[in-house]
Design a protein that fits this description.
The protein has about 80 residues and is an alpha+beta fold. It has a single domain, classed as PH-domain like, CATH 2.30.29. Helix content is about 25%, strand content about 45%. The radius of gyration is 14 Å and the shape is elongated. The protein starts with a strand and ends with a helix.
């Protein structure tokens, strides 16, 4: 299964100067590469991260724009239909 979403990125140089620099870029990944997921933040003050999903692909973590409950359902359906991650 291929998943298309947006990935949260940050410009470290701007962040180091105290300037908010988070932005979204398109991303496509294979569901079979997901190791595990978690809720990124339930804090409404974190506007980019609130209720989003952190996915772990091959040892690296990424924040995607798909809400956690929605992605959790997608992952469970994938595992149920394929009997594996």
């Amino acid at each position: 299964m291929i998943v298309e979403c947006n990935l949260l990125c940050e410009d470290n140089a701007l962040s180091d100067m105290g300037i908010e620099s988070e932005f979204w870029i398109p991303m496509i990944f294979f569901m079979k590469d997901v190791t595990f997921i978690k809720l990124t933040s339930n804090n409404e003050d974190k506007k980019h991260e609130y209720n989003k999903t952190s996915i772990y692909l091959k040892g690296e973590s990424y924040i995607i724009d798909i809400p956690f409950k929605e992605f959790s359902k997608m992952l469970k359906e994938y595992v149920s239909n394929n009997h594996t991650l």
